[in-house]
Amino acid sequence: MPTDTSALDLILRADPALVGIVRLSLLVSLSAVVLAALIGIPLGALIALTRFPGRNGAIVLLNALMGLPPVVVGLLVYLMLSRSGPLGSWGILFTPQAMIIAQSILVMPIVAALARQTIEDLWEEYRDELAALNVGPVRRIFTLIYDARFSLLTALLAGFGRAAAEVGAVIIVGGNIDGFTRTMTTAIALETSKGDLPLAIGLGMVLISLVIVVNALAWGARRASERYAG
Amino acid sequence: MLTRRILIALTAAAFIAGAPAFAQDKSIVVSSTTSTQDSGLFGHLLPLFKKKTGIDVKVVSQGTGQALDTGRRGDADVVFVHARGQEEKFVADGFGVKRYPVMYNDFVLIGPKSDPAGVKGTKDIVAALKTIKSKNAAFISRGDKSGTHSAELNLWKVAGIDIAADKGPWYKEIGQGMGAALNTASASNAYVLADRGTWLSFKNRGELDIVVEGDNRLFNQYGVILVNPAKHANVKKSEGQAFIDWIVSPEGQKAIADYKINGQQLFFPNATAQGV
């Protein structure tokens, strides 16, 4: 990215490098959220609706993992995916796939912990009704997830915010390669290290705007779907 | 479920749109130092190499210590760094095939214009460091095992100062890259050793300026090494070697010499020099 232009210029000219970075950031973070949702929501529902020894410990652990340090997750994924690591034969270190994996690990506990709380609260409310209707355990899970969908959307947005904002994990497993694994956050870190603070701030503004746009789209979708559902 | 469906559809669309970015055509990974990246040298060289050979070079820029470690783990095809001792050890340990000298630039001592240690304009870097130490003037060290950090530690040694034992609150190791060290020095009006390339392209200078330069002990040699395919079978030997052959060829060397910022040449090719 040329450094002798202002961030505003880059945006107004729809600079191809900037567009690529924005697209990669969205691709990585949204993919990570979808992966995290596919694992985290069923996991949260399972913990909410079942009783097993060590359940309280599992809940505390899940809640604590919401605060996983990105740089530690990045380092662990790096060691796994390195050619000298157990998954080295995959050959995906320093690729967007590696970045998606790292961010999924960061986001999954957030989705699972919030889903667990939401579904457990809903279960308290619906327990008698569902018992009276004699609904089986699998149907029960699906019914509760469906009814909690709007609250779960907020959990997904929290996860997306986490993914879009972090730099520690993606810079380690992605390598901040120009045109290939450079995201908004790693580009900001790079411009800061080059001492181009105005460009770094400008990119930061772009990132914040993007996160607002994604949240607005989600809010609009929720509104539309509420009307649709009556 | 409409919202989830929309989200999934959006992501699927993003995946499809992003698919070309995932395609693996001819490419190599080069682990290099922050100085080559932050100075903009790679931005100048790589398009020329790509045009000539069609090979994409993906640069992961780290400190020299970390860049060599990335090579040691087999996560890069080529390492391009500046710490001759560490490079020779890397080859001797069997992780690299052969070290080729590529180019040099020099280190400069950067400090505040107010010059609290009174060393501005002198030519003797060792004397300047002794003065800074005796006056307890603020000094920022990279502290990250990078090539620049190694060079700094070596200069303290030449000055007869055991910096690990003698450092005080005036000496701060920040454990970060060259740009971060310059940002810190700029914010705290401290002295800092920097490579000239990063300094020339650095924008947030504040009250900083060059205070000592031109001492031949500030010479900074870069070398390039192919990671040993015998250690890591995944190393792209022919593409990696093609990059090395190009960068030490007259054409690659000229491209290095041609890179200038504000009319100033940043790196001086010397692939044919002996014993550097």
Report on this structure.
The complex is a heterodimer of chains A (230) and B (276). Chain A has helices spanning 7-12, 16-49, 55-65, 70-81, 96-132, 137-147, 149-165, 168-174, 184-193, 197-229. Chain A has 230 residues and is mainly α. Chain A is globular. Chain B has 2 domains: 26-104 and 221-269, 3-Layer(aba) Sandwich (D-Maltodextrin-Binding Protein, domain 2), CATH 3.40.190; 106-218, D-Maltodextrin-Binding Protein, domain 2, CATH 3.40.190.10. In chain B, 44% of the residues lie in helices and 24% in strands. Chain B contains 12 helices and 12 strands. In chain B, the strands form 2 sheets. In chain B, strands 1, 2, 3, 4, 5, 6, 7, 8, 9 and 12 form a 10-stranded mixed β-sheet that branches. Chain B has a two-stranded antiparallel sheet with strand order 10-11. Mean pLDDT of chain B is 91; it is low at 16-24. At the A-B interface, helix 2, helix 7, helix 9 and helix 10 of A face helix 1, helix 2, strand 2 and helix 9 of B.
Helical stretch count of chain B? 12
CATH superfamily of chain A: MetI-like
DSSP summary, beta strand count of chain B: 12
Order of helices and strands of chain B: HEHHEHEHEHEHHEHEHEEHHEEE
Task: Please tell me the total number of domains of chain A.
Answer: 1
CATH class of the largest domain in chain B: Alpha Beta
According to CATH, what is the class of chain A? Mainly Alpha
Order of helices and strands of chain A: HHHHHHHHHH
Instruction: Give the N-to-C terminal Cα separation of chain B.
Output: 66 Å
Largest sheet of chain A: none
What level of helicity do the residues of chain B show?
40-55%
Overall shape of chain A: it is: globular
